[in-house]
Amino acid sequence: MKKPILGISMGDPFGNGPEITVKALSDKTVYDRCRPLVVGDVSSMEYAARVARKVSGIDVQVRAVHAVSEARFEYGVIDVYDLGLVKSEDIPGDSADPKPFGLGATALGGEAAFQYVVKVIELAQAGEVDATITNALSKEAINMAGHHYSGHTEIYADYTHTSKYTMMLAHEDLRVVHVSTHVSLREACDRVKKDRVLDVIRIANAGCKAIGIKEPKIAVAGLNPHCGENGMFGTEEIEEIQPAIDAALAEGINVVEKKPTPPDTVFSKALGGWYDIVVVMYHDQGHIPLKVKGFVYNKAEGHWDAVAGVNVTLGLPIIRASVDHGTGFGHAGDGHANELSLVNAMDYGIRMALAKEHEAVSAPLGGC
């Protein structure tokens, strides 16, 4: 199998995306496993490369391309599909004395980040890249630029015309998928309906298979404390979640416990290997355990030792994996951003692209 081409959107140009991309692509083993192509602006990537050289001693070059066919994929030279949206004079920093940009969310940053994502989606739909990897964008900034989406997931769904999709967060062997994400908690409760829960169970099962888990073991978290205690604390488990589980079981999907699992114990069990993936009912029910495990702050030294984890959108016709953190505006530009989450996302993108190619190669040929 050929090494997959990863289309990596640069993220907000005034966030941490350019810097962590330079750091991630300074590792030669990345080029041993894939062919990375950054979609963004050469000006931002060149600035980030200068900062990385000053702060971390990383020595890489940046090369502009205007078509995937122009990329060389050579270690030491980062190929950037240059959209020319951010000019050198738009970057407020001084790479000789790196410090945070301090710009925060801006319309220019939002417009640029949005266009990088649109371009990488187009390249994937055209079959020019095998997987897409996204750096962080600011929801506030893209809305300032007039693009009214609540995040990457919704952009991908819109531009790929996908109606049934969900977010999967993963760190090592802990994986979660969400019934709802970027809505209020009150609305999230209202969205716990049988059909949606069943769709997400199906997507979770297919998503595990897409990364090579042949017989996925699935848990479905309850919504209410103690799964409602037989209706004392809420009836969603009885009226919506259990019927979805019953339907999934009838389809041969392995929901291990055959009933909703209390949300205060389901993640401990998942970490213990009981399940390959957990279906959660709303955004923070899934995000909190993943980030408690993947984000490690060094109190003594005052910095993050690890910002790990990956965000994968399941149900799309193309592969999308993302960092599991924000733009880090407060520190962007100072040379100290942690690239581990981007490395994790690239690993997932490679894994899913190879599994997809293997499935295509192994599929029986049609005939008459």
Automatic annotation (TrEMBL):
Cofactor(s) named in the record: a divalent metal cation
Taxonomy, superkingdom: Bacteria
NAD in keyword set: yes
Keywords (A to Z) from UniProt: Metal-binding, NAD, Oxidoreductase
One Pfam entry name: PdxA
GO MF entry, a single one: NAD binding
Family indicated by similarity: Belongs to the PdxA family. PdxA2 subfamily.
NCBIfam families hit by this protein: pdxA
Protein name per UniProt: 4-hydroxythreonine-4-phosphate dehydrogenase
Originating species: Pusillibacter faecalis
Encoding gene per record: pdxA
